[in-house]
Amino acid sequence: MKKKITIIGAGPGGLAAAMLLLSKGYAVNIYEKECSVGGRTGRFLLGDYIFDIGSTFLMLPQYIERIFRLAGKNIHDYVEITPLDPLYRLKFEDGTEFYPSMDLEKTISEIKRVFPDQVENYLRFQHDEQYRFNRIERCFKIPYNNLYDFLRPSFIEALPQMNISGSLRGRLEKYFTNENMRLAMSFQTKYLGMSPWQAPSVYSLISFIEYKWGIHHVTGGLNQLTLAMSEVVKEYGGRIYTSTRVNKILTKGKKAYGIVLDDGTTVDSDYVIINADFAYAMSNFLKTKKKFTDSNLKKRAYSCSTFMLYLGVNKQYEIPHHNLIFGEDFKDYMDNITMEKRPSASSLLYIHNPAATDSTLAPHGKSPIYILVPVPNNKSSINWDEIKHNFRRQVLDFIIAKTELKDIERHIEQEKIVTPLDWQSDFNVYNGAVFNLSHDLNQMFYFRPHNRSEELSNCYITGGGTHPGSGLPNICISSLITSELLIRDDIGDHRWRFE
Ligand SMILES: Cc1cc2nc3c(=O)[nH]c(=O)nc-3n(C[C@H](O)[C@H](O)[C@H](O)COP(=O)(O)OP(=O)(O)OC[C@H]3O[C@@H](n4cnc5c(N)ncnc54)[C@H](O)[C@@H]3O)c2cc1C
């Protein structure tokens, strides 16, 4: 008889693990509290407009392609993935605009145009990052269940490249003398909800990865990836119970034996996988915990949150697909966001304008504009219900002052605001920290919650809350590690691998 696996949450982490495990013959049931799949990589509709909730940048598409391949499928039978050229527009405070590309020649001529004295520095940087990437990437792809995992030859070889005491900004200062160029290569820590001044030096690899492998769009939005995953789950006979909230994991000693749903129904299973936000899950699903107690969770460091403004506008703007607009106090702000907890609508703002390349998301001549502002998480105790309309006003003022969207207010047909409080209450994200536990080195690898639960021996974790961390490429790795560990534990062969 097939072993039964219960997965809590149909985010990309839960769906990817389900695909892998179903393809190996397990019976998998997913329980999702929302009425549709995808989690923070899902979608919602406002009138005629379709919005991605969260993820809009697909990096390293080869990772998600691999998940499909390992599950016996071809992702290109389900979705259309297109590289974006340019990657994005960066608009700095002084008005300078920069349009990098995954095409090296184009990027070099763009650097010559905007930062003429930085070309050699850039080539040196990319060369050195390639060397680091070749050593560090494999360290992200293995589990860290005990401290001895740090003694693996691959980790020891990569260690000097990690420059563990250095910050990302410190590393960039060794290569680039122009401040805007440094910003161009470091703002990517926004994807992890961290400041470039505080993020470990290892994250210089993000800009290297973007410039080398590009940023990709999926026709219909990145939500199509999770919809495609859910199709695969169903094709394999997996069941996804939407609008079904899980309340509790049933345990006996150090083992999980099922879950309890909101309506009191109990579901027995041989294994449980948690995809719901890790810290939320620990504080809600388990009564007794040894390691991740409520006070332990409170003490940990979390990523920033985001203020979201989704606008359905009856106009199309001649701006690129991705736009990052820098304000005057970016450094101060990035420090404050994680330390002093002050929100700012004029430091860094991201505008997603998918209508630039994708006509499927709104009727002709209209566009779904998504605006993201990194803001402090709910540890700050900001009363967003009180300030959100004021903050929206400030965001619009900033956009009107700094971009081509001067008349946007006249064209708004639909609107939705999501604040850190909404992330916490509606999306079950602990502290509203949408990029999970922060990615400081003391919360990475062995020090991040393990892929096999440290509380229960037959319970596993997948998604941004476990190793290796937030972001779709990392989440693909987490689902692979988690599924592999489960199968190894189940069949008793500790060398078993997905090939
Ligand atoms: C605004 C924003 C922008 C982002 N942009 C990008 C990007 O451009 N590129 C990128 O790679 N990454 C991006 N990310 C980060 C990350 O890749 C996504 O957030 C990703 O969806 C996280 O996946 P996950 O599987 O860990 O969790 P989630 O997507 O959050 O899925 C968890 C699921 O669990 C469900 N759940 C929670 N509680 C329960 C319960 N009690 N019972 C049943 N189900 C429950 C939730 O409803 C959800 O569906 C972004 C995140 C945000 C918030």
What does this structure look like?
The chain is of the alpha/beta class. 35% of the residues lie in helices and 19% in strands. It has a 7-stranded mixed beta sheet with strand order 8-7-16-17-18-15-19. Strands 10-2-1-14-20 form a 5-stranded parallel beta sheet, with helices on one face. It starts with a strand and ends in an 8-residue tail after the last helix. The mean pLDDT is 95. The site of flavin-adenine dinucleotide has 34 residues, from helix 1 and helix 16.
Keywords:
single chain, 499 residues, alpha/beta, Guanine Nucleotide Dissociation Inhibitor, domain 1, 7-stranded mixed sheet, 20 strands, 35% helix, 19% strand, binds flavin-adenine dinucleotide
Number of domains: 3
Number of strands: 20
Q: Report how far the terminal alpha carbons are from each other.
A: 24 Å
CATH architecture of the largest domain: 3-Layer(bba) Sandwich
Radius of gyration: 22 Å
CATH superfamily of the largest domain: FAD/NAD(P)-binding domain
CATH T-level fold name of the largest domain: FAD/NAD(P)-binding domain
Helical fraction equals 25-40%
Name the ligand types: flavin-adenine dinucleotide
For the biggest sheet, the summary is:
7 strands, mixed
